[in-house]
UniProtKB/TrEMBL annotation:
InterPro entries per UniProt: CheY-like_superfamily, Homeodomain-like_sf, HptR, HTH_AraC, Sig_transdc_resp-reg_receiver, Tscrpt_reg_AraC-type_HTH
Superkingdom in the source lineage: Bacteria
Keyword Phosphoprotein: yes
Protein name: Response regulator
Single GO biological process annotation from the record: phosphorelay signal transduction system
Chief place of localization: cytoplasm
Keyword line: Cytoplasm, DNA-binding, Phosphoprotein, Transcription, Transcription regulation, Two-component regulatory system
HTH araC/xylS-type domain span: 427-525
Gene Ontology MF terms: DNA-binding transcription factor activity; sequence-specific DNA binding
Chain ranges of the Response regulatory domain: 2-119
GO cellular component terms given for this protein: cytoplasm
PROSITE patterns the UniProt entry points to: HTH_ARAC_FAMILY_2, RESPONSE_REGULATORY
Amino acid sequence: MKILIVDDDEIIVEAICQLIRRSGIDLVIAGTAYNAKDAIRIAQREAPDMILTDIYMPEMNGIDLMREIHNQGMRAKFIVLSAYRDFAYAQQSLKFGASEYILKPVSEQTLADTLTRVMTIIVDENKEKDLKRELVKDRLYYALTSDKMREKNESALNSLLPSDGEEGCFRVAVFEFNEIDSEVNLYDKDNVMEVVQIIQSIFCDPSPNIVFDHDPHHIVVLMKAYQSQCGNDAGNILIGHAIKAKNELMAKLGLKTNIGISNPVKARSDLPSAYKKAVYATRNKFYMGMETVTVFDGRKEMDTDLTNLMSTISKKVVELAEQINLLASEKARGALDEIFEMFSENSSLHPDSIYTACFEIVLVLKYETSKLMPDWQTHQRLFKLTIDDIRKYGTMKEIHHFLVKLVANCIASLSQEQQEGGSAVISKAIKFCKNNLSSDITLEIMAEHLNMNKSYFSFLFKKEMGENFWKYLTQLKLEKAKELLTETNLKSYEIAEMVGYKNASHFGKVFKEHEGLTPSEYKEKHIY
């Protein structure tokens, strides 16, 4: 804290200075004055927390000094030092805000106790003031970021960023931090304070500003730009300050910083819109693949209707699915690259839309893998992927790289499965059929037994056996039926049940279609 000492007696001023220095109180003597007019000039320059003043001085007395200091908006606490015991002086002093009234001559202990009491009052008042300021900041931050700016919020803004009478405009900036490669913990208040100090000293200076550090990874800056800072060159000047702050944060703290800055707005009611534009500008990192400094370009529309574009992208995703199904790795890569080219060419596309489209690609991979691979449960990483996993990739370049690798790995796994696993699967299917001929075997039952998609099973069976599954199964049943007809005395309806036909008439019809004879005729011909 700082104190200004005022007395027309130089000896008394020096004596008080000596007493303060000997007391060990943590108090800086900001200046000394021998008359009220000099005291006012020093107070304007040094903004002391306390002013210790004599009452009776020539030209302007201590009471007039207190009145003038308060009229100028300074909030220093006064300690009145006087040789007068008259209660009227004390009463007048208290009326104009004196915190203490002490008589000359003053002892070292009395002075120390008085200064300590006033310092405690100042500390308590500052704590209360800081608490109120933080509550006002909280309400203003909510209004700014939730698009709910009301008249009372504009009043709150005036209390935090008082008008100095000069015309101007406002800008909002958003600072996003990547601390992955930094040892700085942004949940540590001291670290956040250092970040805020760098932003205020380099980016904001000399503009009046409010820094909202509610989210340490997403610091919002609201600052006033004077008329001279609202011209055409203002954006370039601001970018220069932002780049300097960005470099300083990297040099001192190892923080990678992405910065978005709104275009200037004049009306306080437009501040939520300015915040949105600053956030919008931070998206440049997503497209560029690196932290940037971007001022919102008012010529670009925010989040325009992209229904037609998303429809085109969805068609490309279908094409990608077809290439995966055909195990065409190069064409699949080409389709994926085309999708990301469309993303790059449309910077007005919201990152959320891109994340959603990319997760659609993941769903396609899941579907094609489950359809074409019987033992797809072994690919747990793919099947556990969620859209939140995709969102962990902060840039379009990172997502593209991840999906290229994922598509390539899936196609490689599917190709290997076809080359190595086909025969084993078909052998297992044939064994099941032979051991369960009396059952009603369907594709669904077979696919469930093999833990495989039924469409893929049909495809794989025909590729391995040269005929479709139904034809093979029918032939297998008929071969068994012919064996039973010639080697046993079982009736036709009994044999029909043993080879999976619950209806003997249907069995007889199928038998004759394939053999040209009824079961009875076949038995008679081959036994006798």
